[in-house]
Amino acid sequence: MRFLFRSEQKKKAICFVDFDHWCISMLQKYGTKPDVRLWYNEICREYDLRGLFFFGDFSNPQLRSMLAELRGITNMIIETQNSDEHSEKDFTDFIMLDHIYRNANERGIDVFIIFSGDGHFSSVTSYLKNSCGKEVVVYGIKGSFSGQLKSCATRTVEMPCGEELKNCILRVVCRQLGRIYSSNKNANPTFLATASAVAAAVGSDTDSVSEVMNQMIADGYLYQVRKYAGHGRNIKVIRLDTDRLTAAGLL
After folding, report:
1. N or C: which terminus of the chain carries fewer CB neighbours within 10 A?
2. Alpha carbons 200 and 158: distance in angstroms, whole number
């Protein structure tokens, strides 16, 4: 007997990325660049991607350094640099909104993916969902994601997440401890105090940060030493192995 299985078809999607928001938020909050290829691969696994647009002011060196990577994914890269120094800064938002509205009634597109945490995109998200009958998935960076925008979307995803979040936490741990020891060589940061501080900084929970730090200890990036704290007691102090971190390209 022959059995026929109907494979589930992916929904057709079009995607608009506010690369100013993504790149600058990642740099300011986590001290690293976004993993665009990882995100792109995840999007393609879930959707039949019919268009991918990146919008950004590529006169910014941080964005410009990623142009080659973006071109390996799409040729739809929109430069939004505003030559008028007296004009408003939100030029990327205006250009991106114009492109979204122009594609709003595109036939055969089931899902609109918007990557921006800016509340300016709340109205177009509501319009796509309520007037055009589209599913709207909005990506944004943790701590830089408008609550109003979240409430308008069909579904939201806070970035970074998964493996990328673990990598970001690792870098923030290094940065946090590096700052502590550069300002005071005799500092005594403990495992728990460091995990709590990093969790607050990245908007994560202490258990998740502790998991990453334990892996860093297993990998030899961190180690603990006992130190006399006075009054007959010792504490365990956490330290960076800067040689290993440098060799791994993490410092």
Report:
1. N
2. 16
- The DSSP letter of residue 44 is H
Reported as a single tens digit per residue, the pLDDT across 218-250 is 999 999 998 877 777 888 899 999 889 888 887
Q: What percent of the chain has pLDDT above 90? A: 59
Q: How far apart are alpha carbons 9 and 12 in whole angstroms?
A: 9
Which amino acid is located at 150 in the chain?
Answer: K
**Arithmetic mean of pLDDT over the chain:** 88
Q: Which H/E stretch holds residue 141?
A: strand 135-141
Phi, psi angle pair for 165, to nearest 5°: -65, -40
Q: Cα–chain-centroid distance for residue 24?
A: 10
119-152: per-residue pLDDT in tens?
999 999 999 999 999 999 999 998 889 999 999 9
3-state class (DSSP) for residue 61: helix
Contact 35, 73 (CB under 8 A): no
Please give the residue that has the higher pLDDT: either 77 or 1: 77
Residue written as token pair 């709207």: 136
Using DSSP bridges, classify how beta strands 234-240 and 222-228 pair: parallel, antiparallel or unpaired.
Answer: antiparallel
Alpha-carbon span 85 to 89, nearest angstrom: 9
Q: Give exposure, 220-248, as e/b (b: 16+ Cβ within 10 Å).
A: ebbeeeeeeeeeeeeeebbebbeebbeee
Pairwise CA distance, residues 168 & 30, whole Å: 6
117, 129 in Cβ contact below 8 A? no
